[in-house]
Amino acid sequence: MTSRQALNRARELLANHKIEDASLEAELLLRHTLKIDRTQFYTEPDRMLTKQQEETYWQFVERRIKGEPSAYITGHREFFGLDFYVDKNALIPRPETELLVEQAIAHAGKYLNPLIVDVGTGCGNIAISLAARLPQAKIYAIDISEAALKVASRNCLKHQVADRVKLLVGNLLESATTPVDLIIANLPYVLTADVPQVNTSGFEPHLALDGGLDGMNVIKKLCLQAKDKLQPAGCLLLEIGVGQSKIVADFLQNLYPSANIVFMSDFNGIERVVCMTLPKH
Ligand code: GLN
Question: What is the pTM of this model?
Answer without folding.
Answer: 0.94
